[in-house]
Amino acid sequence: MLKLGIPSKGRLMEQCFDWFASRGITLRRTGSDREYAGAVEGADGLALVLLSAGEIPRELAAGRIHLGVTGSDLVRDKLADWDRQVAELAPMGFGHADLIIAVPASWPDVDTLDDLDAAAAAFRRSHGHRLRIATKYHRLVREFLTRNGVADYQLVDSQGATEGTVKNLTAEAIADITSTGETLRANHLKILADGLVHQSQATLYAARAADWENGAAETLAGLAPRLGFDPKAL
Amino acid sequence: MALKGAARAEADRLMAAFRAAGAVPVEADILQPAEVLLDLYGEDIRARAYVTADPLRGEMMLRPDFTVPVVQMHMSGGAEPARYCYMGEVFRKQEHLTERKSEYFQVGYEVFDRANPALADAEVFALFADLLAPLRLRAVTGDIAILMAAVQGLRTLESRKSALLRHIWRPRRFTQLLDRFGGRAPVPETRARLLAALAAGETLTTAPRIGLRSDAEIAARLAALEADAQAAPIAAEEVARLEDLLNLSAKSPAALAHLRDLAREMPAIASATDRMEARLDALGAKGVDVDTLDFEASHGRTTLEYYDGFVFSFHGRGPDLPPIASGGRYDALTQVLGQGRSIPAVGGVIRPGLVADLTEGASC
Question: Which of A9, B64, B197, B243 gets the most CB atoms within 10 Å of its CB?
Fold first, then answer.
């Protein structure tokens, strides 16, 4: 059996179901609303596993599922050398979100990473600690800032309500996902002009560490034309 | 890869040699408070060091190197002058799938001595060169103090010089800044708009002020931006000389001659160049063949940012492999960790596991 991991809840799950349905594969939940069990019609040898979206990268890396749908932001943030652990089969065209760096709108002098770096240096001198950036995307943000030569900052972990951290004085800037920017504006934050860290969308991945013997590879090859990916991508 | 036993045996041999050279053996805890290391090295160290949580002491790191604890120990009451040696494992998280090890032995030798920095530099390098001689490694040297002096000597705003000094260890950013300060890169669109609004006396923002950064801090930066916009770009010939210096790579005597030439136009580097000459004399007196010793002015610019003088490393085959040994001078670090006090310091580490690998390879 080829195991396909799909987010277990909400709009992301429904959009996944729609995406597969429009390609002739019906995925559905079985049992009660509260039971995480699923069934597949229209593709032999494929089994549905419902998982928390945040756990799908880890399950893919461990090879416990063969295929999985999750945001490209989560895969890149949670997996070191992500492209050596999973293969990106198909971007799915929904679940769009931009991981961006935002600062208070009341900072007229900071619009670029270059400004942020200069402000961080001055901030550290006057406050005795590094300028704090609240985020839950530690790897992506750190790699982005290192690549762009920003210094004198530190990341502070924020697992939710990140836009509120500046007002609450637990951070000076944030790195978070946004789709419309409304929450940012409501919290008096603005996005840096060159502060786009990653453009994320729901993506179908294959696990390089999964067991591809016993027909799994053949099942994948059979799915390739229907789902529109290169069967040699793995 | 050499087994741990072979690495430890090699470490013991090197440690004995360091003790024979007059160093006092010291120990350091494996668990180090993360705060000191993070403050010193920045967020990059979090990607490189194992961070763990202690229920009472907060965030701790498995020691990524010995330098910080050894400097702290010396600054909290060591006698002067001092020579220390140490051996033990260090831990470096590998964020990419490579053959690089995440735990390995280091054997180190550190000298805290005010008397004669050139002599102390030469003492450390010559000791390492002597111990590693059978392996026929390639040694590379550099001098961060010369780069810092060159930047400090630029005829431009202090704010530009301190921005460049901050980014000596981030070459890409350094180049971007130099391009902008030299007028070779256009002013970013957002900056041009801001400057126009400032000049027109427009209201810059109506957003409520949130966060710790104060109005005074914002005003200070706006003033600095205006001053920067009004200042002339760094002269093209000054930029060219700085780039010439950064690209300098030659055998030491030729490098010294070139630096002497440059110093005629860049008097700021003259005294750092004098110190380099004194070091080369001291190295020669200790039997190091300085005529074949490589000097690269940008050497050490991509390592951890505490070296501020002489830097060196010893490499086996393969430029991508980690150096077998490396070290340098870190006078400023002693000031940061010394709470007001400081002492000139130089030292380095050898990786005995890599030495054992090469010794095995050579014998079979």
Answer: B64
User: Would you call A81 and B95 a contact, using CB atoms and an 8 Å cutoff?
Assistant: yes
- Residues of B within 8 A of A152 (CB-CB) are 42, 166
Set of chain B residues whose Cβ sits within 8 Å of the Cβ of A129: 39
Sheet holding B31-33, edge to edge: B31-33, B58-62, B51-54
Cα–Cα distance between B302 and B246 in angstroms, integer? 13
Rounded Cα distance, B64 and B86, in Å? 14
**Phi, psi for residue B208 in degrees, rounded to 5:** -65, 145
Q: Which residue, chain included where needed, has tokens 């419902």?
A: A50
Interface touch A111/B188, C-beta < 8 Å:
yes
Q: Provide the ipTM.
A: 0.89
Contact B157/A at CB under 8 A: no
Closest Cα in chain A to B219: A109
Closest in B44, B189, B191 to A146, CB measured: B44
pTM: 0.91
Tell me the per-residue pLDDT of B258-315, one tens digit each, with 9 for 90 and over: 999 999 999 999 999 999 999 999 999 999 999 999 999 999 888 767 899 999 999 9
Peptide bond into A91 cis (omega under 30): no
- E strands along chain A, which residues? 2-7, 26-30, 37-41, 46-51, 67-71, 86-91, 97-104, 131-135, 153-157, 173-178, 189-200, 202-207
Q: What is the pLDDT along chain A (234 residues), one digit of tens a residue?
A: 899 999 998 899 999 999 999 999 999 888 776 667 788 998 889 999 999 988 999 999 999 999 999 999 999 999 999 999 999 999 999 999 999 999 999 999 999 999 999 999 999 999 999 999 999 999 999 999 999 999 999 999 999 999 999 999 999 999 999 988 999 999 999 999 999 999 999 999 999 999 999 889 999 999 999 999 998 888
- A207 - beta bridge partners? A86
Can you list the domains of chain B with their CATH numbers?
Answer: 4-25+64-150+241-363 (3.30.930.10), 185-232 (no CATH)
Residue B194 and residue A129: Cβ atoms within 8 Å? no
